[in-house]
Design brief:
Helix content: under 10%
Shape: elongated
Number of helices: 0
């Protein structure tokens, strides 16, 4: 199993910045893709950004120029740097990791979520 622990959420004014972190631990062979998703009240969970284990990234159009995802494979940690935050970025942000937990088994694991609130 893989445990994901997020940190870095909070309350920030519009235009401000936050950096989210997510550290993976547990029993696994390797972690492939890692990513950040968010869910605002009344909305479905949506992708914010993803990164492969060799550093390829993709972003939601709504955040593309304001957000940077990165990872430290040695620490099994993924980061999300968010700049120029807007009130519409307010949501619970979830970390996700696709981990190989057995020779032929790839599963997705989720963190518990961290609240990001952007005030206008």
């Amino acid at each position: 199993q893989v445990r994901l622990v997020e940190s870095g959420g909070g309350l920030v004014q519009a235009g401000g910045s936050l950096r989210l972190s997510c550290a993976a631990s547990g029993s696994f062979f390797s972690i492939l893709d890692m990513g950040w998703y968010r869910q605002a009240p009344g909305n479905q969970r949506e992708l914010v950004a993803r990164i492969t284990n060799d550093g390829r990234t993709n972003y939601a159009d709504s955040v593309k120029v304001r957000v940077t995802i990165s990872r430290d494979n040695a620490k099994n940690t993924v980061y999300l740097q968010m700049n120029s935050l807007k009130p519409e970025d307010t949501a619970v942000y979830y970390c996700a990791a696709d981990a190989k937990i057995a020779v032929n088994t790839l599963d997705r694991f989720w963190g518990q979520g961290t609240q990001v609130t952007v005030s206008s």
